[in-house]
From TrEMBL, chain A:
It comes from Prauserella flavalba. InterPro entries: ETF_a/b_N, ETF_b, Mft_EtfB, Rossmann-like_a/b/a_fold. GO terms for molecular function: electron transfer activity. Its cofactor is FAD. This is Electron transfer flavoprotein alpha/beta-subunit N-terminal domain-containing protein.
UniProtKB/TrEMBL annotation, chain B:
InterPro entries: FAD/NAD-bd_sf (IPR036188), FixC-like (IPR039651), FixC-like_C (IPR059103). Keywords: FAD, Flavoprotein, Oxidoreductase. The keyword Oxidoreductase applies. This is Electron transfer flavoprotein. It comes from Prauserella flavalba. It comes from the Bacteria. Its cofactor is FAD.
Length: 286, 449
């Protein structure tokens, strides 16, 4: 942990309609702003942010890039205990940037820095519920020039240290000591957003929500052709074993001996590239 | 542990608050609650409007017609801004028996023009719109919050509500319970007499998607014109009825089933509904539609004689919580009665707050009696019993279909039978005595006349 004092913990909340309906004929996505809100993962991110801010004696701010109806979501964040909120404005639902996450991250990083200050920790859901790729947190880490730890299932702050647990394939977990400043994305697990008290809920109903213009240069997306995704069929013969248990073991790959993952920690990009190349050569890819 | 509303919950005794947080608390942001909050806020009172759903309209089940005349008083020019699916220009009453049906069909293009008569709407949109007016007038909407208990002084005066939020007590000079059918708040205040199950029905509804053009063609309408079909004889002997309403690109088709009759029949409501959708008169209307929603809700259909006391000490009850739904056969109305009762509750509460005398809350009942709300209910107090009676439910649809089939079946070379003879034969075939028929006709005439 680079510093024990954490002045600003930001929870990034994506305003999304988890029950969006897709027209089976046109492919058009029908959304309803009334039922929209943060995803479960974003709600967990807010709870983590509130807990870490309390533990570290810092400020917690909730930020979103969304149109005006999303202010209800920010009011809920205020009611739950966020010290500040910020809405980065986009005129409508559709005008949210359908990009790789880079443009969104740029707009958010700019708004956070100019309106709230340099963040010590930014927390967000691992990916949005609507077509999310989960790439925005990574782009945001690059924008802010800080560390990233993505797809976390546990996050705790104690004795000035931020510890995280990350889900890996095949049921394994990875423990991380996350240096600050950092961007962390969390899965919807482990914590549940607290229920706001009535007095703070009433206060939040009357609160002014700060809004800044979204400095987003949306890159227009043009679809030249659209066709259904039909991956080529791949033949997978069943395991030869007669015993169902053995077939199951074969299919799941349980109990197979595997080489444990080698964790490489290096700040030198050239060294990291060499490691990667060596690994690929060792596996016969190069 | 979170406090929850429920049949076992009871009022909490508290000390008289020195400074209540609000002038009034309205529980429930449905049509009654929002109308009450709007009246109170317009009069300059501070109002908290509690809503259990994440937004007004999130929790309701509705497939019906909103008759907007009361909105002329509440929101002048409402029809230019209200979220409407279709304006009802065609109204049908259908009697079903086996594979037969007899329909009375009325159309008026006047109903498709301002000032209009009634409209289908999605309540998620309608309730949000009405609550928005209350908010603009100054009411504070508190969503995702359930009022679990009444707060009462030792003398029994209601001074607020407890909610399911931490530090969730909220105090006010007046509480208006618009918490819907089976109101736990009205029950906690001891305003409900006895068992409500006898007078409560279960409404089940499917929302079926069809292209707007298909709906236009099947129902003989165009643009934003719509059709309202009320049905009798489609509930397999369970007291109740059916309905089909056109929205812009969906249909609401469903049933209203008496709770005790449904339990006694041992049938699932969705099975009864599936059977209705297979009827030769209904099947062509819903063919090929995509099911997008199935929902169910209780409906207070007992009418005037089953209403609770409407005024308590510091408490008013309005809307479905006060059993204001009018289920009188040819008239099936609820939202307009809810809005009317809510508006008058808000008006009476406002007057009491201005005078500082909570005894003025009694004016609520006077206002209701002098308006359509209780006048209609009082006049039609025998109608629900008649409509849900065994003869009307199980014998008259067959009698009418037999009679009409006899009239229009050509049996040459036999001469046409007289209507009186046909009526007697149909009545006998369906186990109806002419004396009973005359008595029911007289009751109907007294109720509806």
């Amino acid at each position: 942990m680079a510093e024990s004092l954490m002045p600003l913990i930001v929870a990034l909340l994506r305003w999304t309609d988890a029950r969006a309906r897709i027209d089976p004929l046109s492919g058009e996505v029908e959304t309803d702003p009334r039922g929209a809100g943060p995803s479960e993962a974003d709600r967990c991110a807010l709870e983590h942010a509130l807990r870490i801010a309390e533990a570290a004696g810092g400020r917690c701010a909730a930020v979103t890039l969304a149109p005006e109806p999303a202010e209800e979501m920010l009011r809920d964040a205020l009611a739950c205990g966020a010290d500040a909120v910020l809405r980065v404005d986009v005129p409508s639902w559709d005008s949210r940037v359908p990009d790789s996450g880079a443009t969104t991250a740029r707009a958010l990083a700019h708004a956070i820095r100019t309106e709230l200050g340099e963040p010590s920790l930014v927390l967000t859901g691992d990916h949005s519920a609507d077509r999310g790729t989960g790439s925005t947190p990574a782009f945001l880490a690059a924008e802010l020039g800080c560390a990233q730890a993505l797809g976390l299932v546990e996050l705790s702050y104690a004795d000035g240290e931020l510890l995280a647990l990350r889900r890996l394939d095949r049921g394994r977990r990875e423990r991380l000591a996350v240096p600050l400043p950092a961007v962390c994305s969390v899965e919807p697990a482990g914590v549940r957003l607290r229920r706001a008290a009535l007095p703070s809920t009433l206060a939040a109903r009357r609160a002014e929500i700060p809004v800044v213009a979204g400095a987003v240069a949306a890159e227009p997306v043009t679809a030249h052709a659209a066709r259904p995704f039909r991956p080529r069929a791949k033949e997978l013969p069943p395991p030869p074993e007669a015993d169902p248990r053995l077939r199951l073991l074969r299919l799941t790959g349980a109990h197979e001996h595997r080489e444990p993952p080698r964790v490489v920690v290096t700040d030198d990009p050239a060294e990291a590239a060499d490691e990667l190349l060596e690994y690929l050569r060792g596996k016969g890819y190069l | 542990m979170r406090d929850r509303a429920g049949p076992a919950s009871s009022a909490v005794t508290v000390a008289e608050p020195e400074r209540p947080q609000f002038d009034a608390i309205v529980v429930g942001a449905g049509p009654a609650g929002s109308a009450a909050a709007l009246e109170l806020a317009r009069a300059g009172n501070s109002v908290a409007l509690l809503e259990r759903g994440p937004f007004p309209g999130a929790k309701n089940v509705y497939g019906g017609v909103v008759y907007g005349r009361i909105l002329d008083e509440l929101i002048p020019g409402w029809y230019d801004e209200m979220p409407v699916q279709r304006w009802i220009t065609r109204r049908q009453t259908m009697l079903l028996d086996g594979e037969r049906s007899m329909t009375v069909d009325f159309r008026s293009q006047n109903w498709g023009r301002a000032p209009y008569n009634g409209a289908t709407t999605y309540r998620a949109e309608f309730d949000d719109w009405l609550a928005g007016h209350a908010q603009k007038a100054g009411a504070v909407l508190v969503p995702s919050t359930v009022a679990t208990r009444l707060l009462c002084t030792e003398r029994g005066r209601v001074v607020g509500v407890r909610t399911d939020r931490p530090d969730g007590d909220l105090t006010a000079k007046v509480v208006i319970a618009c918490d819907g059918v089976n109101s736990f708040l009205a029950k906690q205040a001891g305003l409900f007499p006895g068992d409500q199950a006898e007078h409560t029905t279960l409404g089940v509804k499917e929302t079926l998607a069809l292209p707007a053009r298909t709906i236009d063609e099947r129902f003989g309408v165009s643009g934003h014109e719509g059709v309202d079909i009320e049905m009798l004889g489609c509930t397999q002997g369970i007291p109740g009825g059916g309905f089909l309403y056109t929205n812009y690109d969906t249909l609401s088709v469903g049933l209203v089933l008496g709770l005790k009759g449904l339990a006694k029949a041992g049938k699932r409501p969705e099975e009864v509904l599936a059977e209705l959708k297979r009827h030769p008169s209904i099947q062509p209307l819903v063919r090929g539609a995509e099911l997008v929603e199935y929902s169910a809700h209780l409906i207070p259909e007992g009418g005037y004689d089953t209403m609770p006391q409407l005024v308590g000490d510091g408490l008013l009850v309005a809307g479905d919580a006060a059993a204001m739904c009018l289920a009188a056969g040819i008239w099936l109305e609820g939202v307009n009665f809810a809005m009317g009762s809510g508006m008058y509750a808000g008006r009476a509460a406002s007057k009491a707050l201005t005078s500082g005398d909570l005894g003025d809350l009694r004016a609520y009942r006077t206002l209701l009696e002098s308006s359509f709300v209780l006048a209609d209910h009082k006049k039609l107090r025998k109608a629900p019993e008649l409509v849900l009676s065994e003869r009307v439910q199980q014998r008259y649809p067959g009698l009418v279909c037999d009679l009409v089939e006899g009239m229009f079946t050509v049996e040459n070379p036999r001469p046409k039978p007289g209507v009186r003879k046909l009526l007697r034969a149909s009545a006998k075939r369906n186990g109806v005595k002419m004396r009973e028929l005359a008595r029911d006709a007289l009751t109907g005439l007294r109720s509806f006349g």
